[in-house]
Automatic annotation (TrEMBL):
<dbReference type="GO" id="GO:0044281">
    <property type="term" value="P:small molecule metabolic process"/>
</dbReference>
<dbReference type="InterPro" id="IPR029061">
    <property type="entry name" value="THDP-binding"/>
</dbReference>
<dbReference type="InterPro" id="IPR051457">
    <property type="entry name" value="2-oxoacid:Fd_oxidoreductase"/>
</dbReference>
<protein>
    <submittedName>
        <fullName>2-oxoacid:ferredoxin oxidoreductase subunit beta</fullName>
    </submittedName>
</protein>
<dbReference type="GO" id="GO:0016625">
    <property type="term" value="F:oxidoreductase activity, acting on the aldehyde or oxo group of donors, iron-sulfur protein as acceptor"/>
</dbReference>
<dbReference type="GO" id="GO:0045333">
    <property type="term" value="P:cellular respiration"/>
</dbReference>
<dbReference type="GO" id="GO:0030976">
    <property type="term" value="F:thiamine pyrophosphate binding"/>
</dbReference>
<dbReference type="Pfam" id="PF02775">
    <property type="entry name" value="TPP_enzyme_C"/>
</dbReference>
<feature type="domain" description="Thiamine pyrophosphate enzyme TPP-binding">
    <location>
        <begin position="59"/>
        <end position="202"/>
    </location>
</feature>
<dbReference type="InterPro" id="IPR011766">
    <property type="entry name" value="TPP_enzyme_TPP-bd"/>
</dbReference>
<keyword id="KW-0560">Oxidoreductase</keyword>
Length: 280
């Protein structure tokens, strides 16, 4: 308990930003806890960290932490983060986004940030819905589910955020859940330490907009679903397609070393400067 209290006072803006705006039982608080524990383990100072977010429930997370923070426009968190990283590559830039923020209006930015292999950490909170803006369906809302913009049912098929990141070229891609909080701490820490574009998809829950509307119960029931449905990558490799039906994998999906955009960009700058010096 003493350690928890220490982290709270070290990293949270507890004197002016609380109580938070999240619904009771929301998984975002678990992600916040994992994030500050992971950062603490890396040994980074608060001045070395920049936390960038977009709009939505997840977009409020940087408001509560005592780092350099940037609350940006919907779907554009990665573009602002790219600018910060190019301006000062020594900063550890972490981007917090929701499933709609990152993969709908921000979808192209997400794909190309992965393709470029920017030295950023992207944490995407996937609750299968637009929570703060009214319960509209998102790119990860399951086929057949209900939403305010799909009152009869969703007829669009969802896609996997993590698998999209792997295909687009991210250096590291992982998936965790807010139920598996200890594992999530480790995934976020590894993603922060990874050089290149590192993505952690966090399967969380919105019992207010998604769970209630789809008769999935409250926070306890939705956390239990995560426990029963998630399969660790190592175990999944030994299971048949039939056994994996209806399940999803958690853990590290890919970890590879690729050329890092900021380093390659610096080489271009140095080459250009050398040529200009010769021309003089």
């Amino acid at each position: 308990m003493a350690e928890i209290t220490k982290l709270i006072h070290k990293y949270l803006r507890h004197e002016k930003k609380f109580p938070h705006v999240w619904c009771p039982g929301c998984g975002n608080g678990i992600v916040l806890g994992s994030l500050i524990r992971a950062i603490d383990k890396t040994g980074l100072t608060k001045d070395e960290v920049v936390l960038v977010s977009g709009i939505g429930c997840s977009g409020r997370l940087p408001v509560y932490v005592d780092f350099n923070t940037l609350h940006t426009t919907h779907g554009r968190a990665l573009t602002f983060a790219t600018g910060v990283k190019l301006a000062n590559p020594s900063l550890q830039v972490i981007v917090i986004m929701g499933d709609g923020d990152a993969t709908a209006i921000g979808g192209n930015h997400f794909i190309h940030a992965a393709r470029r292999n920017l030295n950023l950490t992207a944490i995407i909170l996937n609750n299968n819905i637009y929570g703060m803006t009214g319960g509209q369906y998102s790119p990860t809302t399951p086929y057949g589910a209900l939403a305010t913009t799909a009152i009869y049912r969703n007829i669009e098929h969802s896609f996997s955020i993590a698998e999209l990141a792997v295909t687009a070229g991210a250096s590291m891609v992982a998936r965790g859940t807010v139920y598996h909080a200890n594992m999530l701490d480790g995934l976020i820490e590894k993603a922060i330490r990874k050089r290149g574009f590192a993505v952690v998809e966090v399967v969380t829950h919105c019992h207010t907009q998604y769970g209630r509307r789809n008769n999935l119960g409250g926070p306890v029931e939705m956390l239990r679903w995560q426990k029963e449905t998630a399969v660790r990558v190592e175990k999944a490799q030994k299971m048949t397609p039939e056994e994996l039906e209806g399940k999803f994998t958690i853990g590290i999906l890919v970890d590879r070393d690729l050329p890092i955009y900021t380093q390659e960009y610096q080489k271009i700058r140095e080459t250009a400067k050398a040529r200009m010096a010769k021309a003089r």
